Structures are given as structure tokens and as C-alpha cells.
Amino acid sequence: MIEFERHILSNGLKVIVHYDDSTPMVTTNLLYDTGSRDEDPEATGFAHLFEHLMFEGSDNVPVFDTPVMLAGGENNAFTNNDITNYYITLPANNLEIALWLESDRMVGLDLSENRLMNQKSVVTEEFRQRYLNQPYGDLLLLLRPLAYKVHPYMWSAIGKDISHIEKACSDRVRQFYQKHYTPSGAILSIAGSSKPDDVFRMAEKWFGDLPSSEKIVRVLPQEPTQKERREITVYRDVPAAQLLMAFHTGGRESRDFYILDLLTDILSGCDSGRFPSLLVRKKELFSEADIYLSGEIDPGLVIFSGRLKNGTDIKKAEAAVMNELGRIATEAVTTAELDKARNRYESIRLLSYLSASNKAFNLAFHELLGDANGINTEIDRYMSVTAEEITDSSSRTFTPDNCNVVYYLPETK
């Protein structure tokens, strides 16, 4: 049981504290309820751009990393389709430095043209190196617009097109910042050797005077039910073919999420899983085969990804994957398989909570989902999954009409 206390400032900032005196360190985790799904379809990549801009400094702190390092800390951030998350880990007696820094850049970020140009250059170079010029780097850039036709999950967090960042002007960037980087749009969670009353006092000191704003009511287009198979074929300069398949499923809080999360572990969560055993070693169709949930808050995807062995016909490989998924929909998984998946989930969860930073993030994320106490109750959702539920969910999910396929083939020399 991870105990915590919650306090909400008058400007809407939620503050959650987990006290753990087993460590001299503390992690501040500031989760902003904004990701790539909140972007204009004609101006994508802004959420990720801000992940970079937030380290550019402010009028008060020209170089953000310097005071963090002087305080004996380290910091980082990540962006996805739903959120942008920042965290700082440092000695507990320097917690106030982290809170000062976070409050300062929440409202006082330096968005001068020079700093904006610097980070636009960094982000566009990342786009090229990681997604456009790297072998297999554009797989998800191809899959998402195939699977989604109206929902903004149709583009990745890096953005839909590199030109959107190249053309980003300071006015639109500032508008995005002022709209999404507000106390009411954020959750601050702290885990480590700092007592709740002390944290709440410091949070009031550094965040309490920041201007309040109405929390954004998100209204996104709902993706219609897919009614026919979708397929694309592309040729790239790669050594081996890749098969990508995606099936629509429920959102992060749906029952199907927990059912299929355990199922994907049964199929490929370890070397003895069904896919490595059958598709890689026994049938020798793939050199590697994986299946996982995309994990978004809104209805997401179950994604199969497999690298084919040279000479394997990709349609034969796809048929083998569909055959195994169909078998799950008609034959119950064994008790041993289900128990193994549950035990793996529980052990990984318990090990992750040895880290204060993991506890801080998960408290914030569950608060975003509706209640930070989900960090304690979620385990029951996994442990209660039955073999019958897996069969039922699979029969509804892994159908030809719900399938999106990318054939990613080597160019003919």
C-alpha cells in the first residue's frame, strides 16, 4: 500500500505527497495534462517541442540544468499522445529548489525567437535522425494514420510532418504554452523523504500565487468503429521485412485494457511466451515477434510487430499471426500461463515501486485518470482477469475487419 496525502491549491494545482523515509532523496514529478492529442492537425509536434523548450530557461534561470546540478540532482522529461511529464530527483533537503524551478518555468519560460529557433532545430533534427533516416523509424508514422481516421492519435508525439515544427511561429508557440501550461492543467506529485505538511507549505509558497485559469474541457472526435481491413505496403532500405498489425481496443480505464495487457504478456512477455516459442523458434517465420498495447488514455491499439526471417513470405507470416490470435479467441489460455502473467505483473510492479520517481509519476498519472489511489487498486484489476475474459476480449478484438496492416519490405536492389 502506497500511502499519500492530497492538497489542491486555490489556482487548481493538485499536489500529492508520498512520504518515504527509507531514502534521503526526493522526486518532484510535474505532469501536464497535454500531449499530442491536444494539437492542431495543421500544427503538430508542439507538445514535444515544449518538452525541449522547458529546459531552455527563463528570465530568472537562464540555464535550467545548472541549479539542478548544483543541488545534487538530475532531471528529465517525456512526451506522449496524452501527457507531458517533467521530473527532478535530488536530496530531500533541496526540495524547495526543485519547486522554485518548476514554478518559475510554469509561467516565466523564455520563449524568445533565438531560443525557439534553437529548439526547433533540435527537434527537427531528432525527427530526421530517429524517424525519417533510421531503418524502421517511420513504422508508427505509417501505422497511426492507417488505424485512425478522425482521432488525433493519428499522428505520433513527434508530429505529423516535420514542416509543422519548421514553420512554428512564436505567436502559436506562446498560445500553446499559455493554454496548456497552467496550474489547473497540472498535477504535482512528490515522493521521498519530505513530509506532506512541509511539501504543502512549500507548494503554496512557490505555486500559490500563480494565476489560475479554467481547466480545459477536452472535446475530441471519437474514432468510429472500423468495419474493414486496411493495408498498406511500403519499400525501404532495410535488411529484412517487417510486419506491423494493429487492432482497436478500449482506453486505459477499460476492462479490455487489463485483460489484453495480461494476454500480450502471455504471448510475448518473455522468451517462453507463445510468439517467441511458436513463430520464432518452431515455425521460423520471424527473427523476433512482439505484441503490446499502445497504452493511451483514449481507446488505443493492440500492436503486433515482427521482423521476418529472410525468405519468409509476409502474407504467410501474417496468416500465422492471425491463426495464433484466433486460437486465443477459441481456446482458453492455461491456468499456468495466466498465473505466470499475473505473477510477472505483480513482481515488476513491486520492483518498480522501489524507485521514488516511479511512485511519484504513477501517483500523478492515476490522479489524472481519476484517483491517485488507483496506484493501490489497479493490481486487483489485473489479478481478477479470468481465462474466459481473455477469450471473450480476443474474439471481439482480433477480427479481420478490425485489423490494420503495414507490409514494410526491403527495396529491390
Account of the 3D structure:
The chain is built from 15 helices and eleven strands. The chain is of the alpha+beta class. It folds into two domains: 5-207, 2-Layer Sandwich (Cytochrome Bc1 Complex, Chain A, domain 1), CATH 3.30.830.10; 230-410, 2-Layer Sandwich (Cytochrome Bc1 Complex, Chain A, domain 1). Strands 1-2-6-3-5-4 form a six-stranded mixed beta sheet, sandwiched between helices. Strands 7-11-8-10-9 form a five-stranded mixed beta sheet, sandwiched between helices. β4 and β5 (84-91) form a beta hairpin. α9 (255-268) crosses α15 (387-397). The protein is globular, with a radius of gyration of 23 Å.
Describe the secondary-structure layout:
Blueprint: E1 5-8, E2 14-19, E3 25-32, H1 46-53, H2 65-70, E4 74-79, E5 84-91, H3 95-107, H4 113-132, H5 139-147, H6 162-166, H7 170-180, E6 186-192, H8 196-207, E7 230-236, E8 242-248, H9 255-268, H10 274-282, E9 286-293, E10 301-308, H11 314-330, H12 335-352, H13 356-369, H14 374-383, H15 387-397, E11 403-410
Parallel strand pairs: 2-6, 7-11
Antiparallel strand pairs: 1-2, 3-5, 3-6, 4-5, 8-10, 8-11, 9-10
Helix pairs in contact: 1-4, 3-8, 9-12, 9-15, 11-15
Overall mean pLDDT: 96
Q: What is the level-2 CATH architecture name of the largest domain? A: 2-Layer Sandwich
Poorly predicted ranges = none
- Count of helices? 15
Q: Based on CA inertia axes, which overall geometry fits? A: globular
Q: If you compute it from the alpha carbons, what radius of gyration comes out, rounded to the nearest whole angstrom?
A: 23 Å
Structural class assignment: alpha+beta
Biggest sheet layout: 6 strands, mixed
Q: What proportion of the residues form beta strands (DSSP E)? A: 15-25%
- Oligomerization category of the chains in this entry: single chain
Determine the CATH superfamily of the largest domain: Metalloenzyme, LuxS/M16 peptidase-like
Q: Could you please say which CATH topology of the largest domain applies here?
A: Cytochrome Bc1 Complex, Chain A, domain 1
Order of helices and strands: EEEHHEEHHHHHEHEEHHEEHHHHHE
Strands, total number = 11
CATH structural class of the largest domain: Alpha Beta
